[in-house]
Design goal:
This protein is mainly alpha-helical. The protein has one domain. The protein contains seven helices and no strands. The longest helix is centred in the middle third of the chain and has 29 residues. It starts with a helix and ends with a helix.
Length: 159
């Protein structure tokens, strides 16, 4: 972890980090946008998860539901990544020693990798609805990882 300290120090010293830290309003505005992105993403993940479990939208294929919601998924992920970096840059040295931050980043990396591999394959496959075990496991893992990102982020302010 010591290898990353220069990066954290650099981020903390950027003009972006200093500007956000020096403003009374920038951090809460950026955080509100960040949380809105997370809320949209979690809402989409819950809808697709409930479809993968067969609880809702049974007359629609998972593929159609996921395709319709994909723009919201990726827009919210991009919003979260951009605003997350801005928030991070304003308190990078605080994050360096935060176990909550490390937990959040681990969940985020795993969630993104899962999203572009297994989850993408499951939600674009024509036969995922014929494989309920795989569909349910995919839904559970996606929800656990993305909610882990949210919970880890929430814990940063407290721990």
């Amino acid at each position: 972890m010591e290898l990353l300290f220069p990066f954290f120090k650099w981020c903390d010293g950027t003009w972006i980090g200093e500007t956000i830290r020096g403003s009374k309003y920038l951090f809460p505005i950026i955080e509100a946008i960040h949380l809105l992105g997370l809320t949209v993403l979690l809402g989409v993940m819950v809808i697709i998860g409930l479809r993968l479990f067969g609880f809702i939208l049974r007359h629609e294929s998972t593929r159609d539901v996921a395709t319709d919601l994909r723009p919201y998924t990726w827009t919210s992920i991009v919003v979260m990544l951009v605003t997350g970096f801005l928030l991070f840059s304003s308190e990078a040295l605080k994050c360096y020693d935060s176990s909550s931050f490390r937990f959040k980043m681990a969940c985020l990396i795993l969630a993104l990798l899962f999203q572009v591999t297994i989850y993408h394959k499951a939600t674009t496959s024509m036969d995922v609805d014929k494989r309920p075990g795989f569909a349910r496991l995919t839904a559970i893992l996606a929800l656990v990882l993305w909610f882990g990102v949210g919970l880890g982020g929430r814990a940063i302010g407290f721990l």
